[in-house]
UniProtKB/TrEMBL annotation:
<dbReference type="Pfam" id="PF00454">
    <property type="entry name" value="PI3_PI4_kinase"/>
</dbReference>
<dbReference type="GO" id="GO:0005777">
    <property type="term" value="C:peroxisome"/>
</dbReference>
<keyword id="KW-0808">Transferase</keyword>
<feature type="domain" description="PI3K/PI4K catalytic">
    <location>
        <begin position="210"/>
        <end position="523"/>
    </location>
</feature>
<dbReference type="GO" id="GO:0005768">
    <property type="term" value="C:endosome"/>
</dbReference>
<dbReference type="GO" id="GO:0000407">
    <property type="term" value="C:phagophore assembly site"/>
</dbReference>
<dbReference type="InterPro" id="IPR015433">
    <property type="entry name" value="PI3/4_kinase"/>
</dbReference>
<dbReference type="GO" id="GO:0000045">
    <property type="term" value="P:autophagosome assembly"/>
</dbReference>
<dbReference type="GO" id="GO:0034272">
    <property type="term" value="C:phosphatidylinositol 3-kinase complex, class III, type II"/>
</dbReference>
<dbReference type="GO" id="GO:0048015">
    <property type="term" value="P:phosphatidylinositol-mediated signaling"/>
</dbReference>
<protein>
    <submittedName>
        <fullName>Phosphatidylinositol-4,5-bisphosphate 3-kinase catalytic subunit, putative</fullName>
    </submittedName>
</protein>
<dbReference type="GO" id="GO:0034271">
    <property type="term" value="C:phosphatidylinositol 3-kinase complex, class III, type I"/>
</dbReference>
<dbReference type="InterPro" id="IPR000403">
    <property type="entry name" value="PI3/4_kinase_cat_dom"/>
</dbReference>
<dbReference type="InterPro" id="IPR036940">
    <property type="entry name" value="PI3/4_kinase_cat_sf"/>
</dbReference>
<dbReference type="InterPro" id="IPR011009">
    <property type="entry name" value="Kinase-like_dom_sf"/>
</dbReference>
<dbReference type="GO" id="GO:0016303">
    <property type="term" value="F:1-phosphatidylinositol-3-kinase activity"/>
</dbReference>
<dbReference type="GO" id="GO:0006897">
    <property type="term" value="P:endocytosis"/>
</dbReference>
Length: 523
């Protein structure tokens, strides 16, 4: 899950970096500064940087951007591995573009060019990076090892009896013993294959030691939950991820990056005259995000929740620390004191209440702005350990919608009711949680609306991989979301009207998914 990243520090201003992209005035040295500031943040924004670079006209400036990316890729194995994975996606990598081929000719003598492209890497950008590093043999082995992991993951997707299967990428007997002792892996379920690097090529820090199938789901896309076995600080931990096929996860990644950009704006600015202060801390909207790595017509999704989820109620074991809106509503209505104690928002600590309200405000405003549709109870998650709300599943976005859709702010009824009876103190004023949610949502919406030109350019770049997401379609979506033909005050009042509506459509949408769950249970 995303750590809240400050938009400005002594070293790097993320808002300025994004604004320079929106104005087509990003200096190549600023790309290097982002990498030097945070390798993790650079990898997160790599799809945007690749798209921005591709969008530029051929010339010295574009060649300097190419050169900078090649240099960073040659310095960072993690960046190089992410480029290798992203190359598996259509229209994500510029390596076959005429401009990049011209850059290669510009940078290399004919002999050097022929040497670089005798290396048989499919991606020309990878070829240039490895030619710079001069470690072809080593990287060819690493590419084979990485591809084996991706192919094994894909193979497990089609295996109905895959639960428990484990790919160990260590040959050290002591490490294998430690892993099998901690995770209880049966020997017959283990496949061993080497991994030459002491890094995790997917999500987060640590060394990758294995990949284990945790669960095969029976939902429509039948995703598979994997546990990445990570060694960090001499301890073995599990990072839960979901492998999903059938949906274009480039869309999910672009949506998550859009939310990250919104958070950057909210972190950067504050209304000085009327800040929302709780316990001497300014409360701002925040859209909770998670990481996505698309590849092979699917990809890996960082799962919301704790690594080792356990039941919060011994009687009702489905109540874990991360639940969807349906489970929240179900267990809020049953006669169980333990469930009520956990789910009764009005009894939470004030700081925890505000975390929920801030993430609800950020999440629903962010979803509204990018035209997020198909919002039903199973597409909304509540992380009870962090007290935050998060949207999942971005199959319908930029106002593409299913045949039957709910209203844009399909907030779970139980959350609405809980907030209305929740008391919070903001700026020494007592108000109910629902009013605080409305107030924080309008502030977040207004800040984004005042950055509409900046956001239109950034979102257009993020979704440029798909020709159906045209600049015109994105401009139209944001114009509609921000009501740009109306005054600022009227636009905000229109938003408040949407927030206050309880929709019959939402009730039908939720019931529709209950029927689908029942049908899946019959199969």
């Amino acid at each position: 899950m995303e750590k809240q990243i400050e938009s400005q520090s002594n070293e790097f201003d993320l808002y300025h970096f994004l604004f320079e992209i929106s104005m087509d005035s990003l200096e190549p040295k600023e790309v290097s500064q982002l990498y030097n500031f945070s390798e993790e943040l650079f990898i997160k924004y790599l799809p945007l940087i690749l798209s921005y670079t591709s969008s530029q006209d051929r010339g010295k400036y574009k060649f300097e951007l190419f050169k900078t990316l090649v240099k960073i890729g040659s310095m960072s194995m993690k960046v190089l591995l992410r480029i290798m994975i992203l190359h598996h996606n259509k229209n994500y990598c510029f390596c076959k573009s005429h401009d990049f081929l011209q850059y290669i000719t510009y940078e290399s003598s004919q002999e050097e060019k022929e040497e670089a492209f005798s290396k048989e890497f499919e991606c020309n950008l990878v070829n240039m990076i490895i030619w710079n590093k001069n470690n072809y043999k080593e990287m060819k082995v690493i590419e084979e090892e990485l591809n084996y992991q991706l192919e094994w993951i894909d193979k497990m997707y089609y295996n109905k009896q895959c639960e428990g299967s484990t790919l160990l990428v260590t040959n050290k007997l002591e490490e294998i013993r430690n892993i099998t002792n901690e995770i209880e892996i049966k020997e017959k379920e283990i496949v061993q294959y080497k991994w030459s690097l002491l890094i995790n090529p997917y999500f987060g820090e640590g060394e990758l030691k294995g990949i284990r199938v945790m669960k095969k789901y029976s939902t429509t896309c039948a995703p598979v939950e994997f546990g990445l076995i990570i060694k960090l600080n001499n301890k073995i931990k599990i990072k839960r991820v979901l492998y999903k096929k059938g949906d274009d996860l480039r869309v999910d990644l672009s949506a998550e990056l859009s939310f990250h950009v919104f958070n950057c704006i909210w972190n950067k600015f504050i209304f000085k005259a009327s800040p929302h202060i709780v316990n001497n801390e300014v409360i701002k909207p925040f859209a909770e995000t998670y990481d996505v790595i698309p590849f092979n017509e699917g990809g890996l999704i960082e799962m919301v929740g704790c690594s080792n989820e356990s039941p919060l109620c011994l009687t009702h074991t489905q109540l874990s620390c991360c639940i969807d809106g349906r489970t929240f509503e179900l267990y809020s209505s049953i006669p169980c004191n333990k469930c009520h104690q956990i789910l009764e928002v009005s009894s939470w600590d004030l700081n925890d209440k505000m975390k929920l309200i801030a993430s609800l405000s950020g999440g629903f405003v962010a979803g509204f702005v990018v035209g997020l549709r198909d919002r039903h109870l199973e597409n909304m998650k509540f992380h009870l350990c962090t007290h935050r709300f998060v949207h999942i599943d971005f199959g319908y976005i930029l106002n593409k919608k299913p045949y039957f859709d709910a209203n844009r702010f399909a907030i779970p009824t139980v959350i609405r009711n809980e907030l209305q009876k929740t008391k919070v103190i903001i700026d020494n004023e007592i108000m109910n949680g629902w009013d605080a949610f409305i107030s924080l949502s309008t502030i977040g919406y207004l800040m984004l609306r005042r950055n509409v030109g900046f956001l239109t350019r950034i979102i257009s770049l993020l979704f440029s991989f798909d020709e159906s997401f045209t600049d015109e379609a994105i401009t139209q979506c944001l114009s509609h979301s921000f009501y740009l033909t109306l005054s600022e005050a009227t636009a905000v009042n229109t938003l408040i009207g949407h927030l206050q509506v309880f929709s019959i459509q939402k009730m039908i949408k939720d019931s529709q998914h209950e029927i689908l769950r029942w049908c899946r249970g019959l199969n």
